[in-house]
Amino acid sequence: MQQPKYKRVLLKIGGEALLGERQYGISPQATQEVASEIKIVVGLGVQVALVVGGGNIFRGLSAAQQGIDRATADYMGMLATVINALALQDALEKLGVDTRVQTALEMKEVAEPFIRRRAVRHMDKGRVVILAAGTGSPYFTTDSGAALRALELNCEVLMKATKVDGIYDKDPMKYKGAKRYSTLTYLNAIKEEGIAVMDTAAISLCMDNHIPILVFNLFTKGNLKRAVLGEDIGTVVK
Ligand code: UDP
User: Fold this and answer.
1) What ranges do the domains of the chain cover?
2) Beta 47-52 vs 99-103: how paired, if at all?
3) What CATH code would you report for 8-237?
4) Atom of ligand 1 nearest to the CA of 12
5) C-alpha 126 to ligand 1 mean position (Å)
């Protein structure tokens, strides 16, 4: 069997990953595809904590720009991530992967509250823990939630799934000769304009606590597996 590089990873999936061809909401097929990629790495024995965003349904900041109170809009955004978490739970369980959803805002009829030691126990038992509602606080993003949970749960790496193959020196869509960075420092990831990998708060939390961030393309089939096997894909921010 191929030997994974990591025992426990935190995978951050933006809400966009569930859109498929849609402009809004959840495509069951796209969700299923994401779930199949996760099933493969669970099969390798890797423990997975999953943080899911809500951008396919609701983003607090854009709603606030249209007049909704910012904190209220952010709570709405956090609820959107719970909807996505349930969709992913359903997709994973249909593939036979055991899961638990834990939420940073309590809603015990729907999911467990986030309890760190319990989340660890679930992962030890081979369950994927899907962490919803970000940090539970407005003015944050699910990227910050992902950084926080990755640290709390002693994950070895924060894997940030994106639509691009990593971080480039220039926009690879516009420039032919654009070069992918294999590694990048946290400070450069924060500093360089046009490299919007993650928000500054999330990157600096990772920097202060020395957890690497792997930015990679989840939409290339088999990439998540390659990532956990330690192949040279994406960009490692460290
Ligand atoms: N959000 C929040 N606090 C958090 C995490 C998320 O207020 O700790 C809200 C925020 O309004 C955000 C929305 O939830 O816009 C959806 O999360 P995000 O934009 O990070 O989703 P993604 O871009 O990853 O799909």
Assistant:
1) 8-237
2) unpaired
3) 3.40.1160.10
4) 24
5) 27
Which atom number of ligand 1 is nearest to the Cα of residue 136?
8
CA angle, residues 174, 201, 101, in degrees to nearest 5: 95
Instruction: Supply the angle between the helices 70-94 and 28-43 in degrees, to the nearest 10.
Output: 60
Q: pLDDT, tens digit, for every residue of 9-40?
A: 999 999 999 999 999 999 999 999 999 999 99
* Pocket around ligand 1 at a 6 A CB cut-off: 14-16, 53-55, 59-61, 73-74, 77-78, 80-81, 134-135, 137-138, 140-145
Does the pTM surpass 0.85? The reply is yes
Locate 203 and state its tokens.
Answer: 């990157």
Residue recorded with tokens 């407005």: 138
Averaged pLDDT for residues 155-161: 97
Give me the residue label for tokens 């926080």: 148
Distant-in-sequence, close-in-space partners of 101: CB < 8 Å, separation ≥ 6: 82, 85, 86, 89, 110, 111, 112, 129, 130, 131, 132
